[in-house]
Amino acid sequence: MGRYRIRVATGAWLFSGSYNRVQLWLVGARGEAELELQLRPARGEEEEFDHDVAEDLGLLQFVRLRKHHWLVDDAWFCDRITVQGPGACAEVAFPCYRWVQGEDILSLPEGTARLPGDNALDVFQKHREKELKDRQQIYCWATWKEGLPLTIAADRKDDLPPNMRFHEEKRLDFEWTLKAGALEMALKRVYTLLSSWNCLEDFDQIFWGQKSALAEKVRQCWQDDELFGYQFLNGANPMLLRRSTSLPCRLVLPSGMEELRAQLEKELQNGSLFEADFILLDGIPANVIRGEKQYLAAPLIMLKMEPNGKLQPMVIQIQPPNPSSPTPTLFLPSDPPLAWLLAKSWVRNSDFQLHEIQYHLLNTHLVAEVIAVATMRCLPGLHPIFKFLIPHIRYTMEINTRARTQLISDGGIFDKAVSTGGGGHVQLLRRAAAQLTYCSLCPPDDLADRGLLGLPGALYARDALRLWEIIARYVEGIVHLFYQRDDVVKGDPELQAWCREITEVGLCQAQDRGFPVSFQSQSQLCHFLTMCVFTCTAQHAAINQGQLDWYAWVPNAPCTMRMPPPTTKEDVTMATVMGSLPDVRQACLQMAISWHLSRRQPDMVPLGHHKEKYFSGPKPKAVLNQFRTDLEKLEKEITARNEQLDWPYEYLKPSCIENSVTI
User: Fold this and answer.
1) Does the annotation flag 540 for ligand binding?
2) Is 127 annotated as a binding residue?
3) Residue 220, Cβ neighbours under 10 Å: how many?
4) For residue 280, pLDDT beyond 60
5) Residue 77: inside a domain, yes or no?
6) pTM surpassing 0.85?
7) Burial group, residue 327, by CB count within 10 angstroms (0-12, 13-18, 19+)
8) Would you say residue 517 lies in a domain?
9) What is the pLDDT at residue 181?
10) Do the Cβ atoms of 170 and 395 come closer than 8 Å?
11) 420 part of a folded domain
12) 663 is in an annotated binding site
């Protein structure tokens, strides 16, 4: 006879406990035993039991559990179960971290990560095969729109698997803040009913409520060319700027602009000429909002980097050449102030579109969802890469499903306020998806391709590279624990299936754009996993968090434009500027959504600080602890640097980076 000490931990979330009775079995190599416990798990509690078992169970392999309900199936969120065997046996952990529903028996394997080839005990192989078969029935692919990455098959949030849903506190906060934003919008609309809306200062009437200190600085300085240039490096969208290697073909310089050409050529020779080309927007149909036609442009802007590292705009071409306008008007800093301001507003509007659709929605949210669905379909809970990745896909399926039903759906936020809404956003997504490359998701490759390495004022670039290095070391630490040689990587069928599922299925045959269809080495696997974690954490933070700072003052990044782009400079008046910028309704909606989507989440889990313990044993824990130490060091470096800056760059401070795409 041996005595076993069993600890059962229940989640701390609202409604995690259950009034239903839970039945437990211990399963060892030599036998199994039912535990006659009257377990009714309580939220946030760890319950401990001692139980005598008549036979020797041997090495523990599984804990099996079944929840019995009477009248009501009261779901239970089980964190983990640990068992201390007789004598000097080590405590054994059985991670769960999922909802227990119905009356089916749930088997929890011992928490040691195992590769498919490591299964000396056939029971584990059978378990992982059954688990994947069941998961592939639950986690199915769907096509939201042709030509885009696949999504989880869920028409609405209630269709999602329970373990991918928001916990109750998250759901309540998300839905209450939406209502708070709607109330604030209504109050602002009432406040401005009898007020004028004919000069830029009138935007002050709605610039109250939820805003940040940086947003206030933007309001004061948004017309400055220096801040306009700064945003291409460190604003909400630092992904478009690139160093020029030649003068763009589309930049047609008419006679009389020889001096400008000479200036551009000089900066080009010095390596200080940069460009941002929004050609992806060319030909995208503009929205119609409440019967009023909206407008889009595809600007090109050339900038020079001064010796102090600051970017200054040199020339803006609002539209590319076309047969009816072979020499489009060029706007210069020396133009009449309102004409130059309106040209910059068109650039900022175009940047808003590409930022939200291409770099935010596609490159972070949709890519993260592909990683999440493929992980659930191809990697069983025993697999080390599943244990490694699962904290980084928390809430991603639900936030994306909500986006497809509320934000980018027919009649959603984009249709109500954004110039690419009404279907243009889907066309833009398709164009962007066709250009999505593996290298574009990896900062060392992307920043080198754009010529931005080593720029002193490029704070996003500097912090992104440091984070990539830290995440890469973390990945390598975990991978080398389980894959000591390249042939072990090549011989893992579950890992290879996961890779194919992402590239060929989720990303729709993306191997032509550099994504791998198999892993041939440790280094190839490490690079891919680093991309996955960076995309789901740091890159999303860099792209998402700046919305409140840079978009709350609407003239700095107008969500829509209500008049056609100007073709002359002398005719631009304040009425032209105000008639082009969003109206009160659209501006209020932009402010509300910017706050809702980029505020810090109450249940935010910082990068690397998840509490779930999916791995067993000291070695994975040591790797995670080193990762946290590296992040703390970077945090101190960024904090010290930011204290010296007029415009601190906070988005890639590790404490500000969420562990997954959750908003």
Assistant:
1) yes
2) no
3) 10
4) yes
5) no
6) yes
7) exposed
8) yes
9) 80
10) yes
11) yes
12) yes
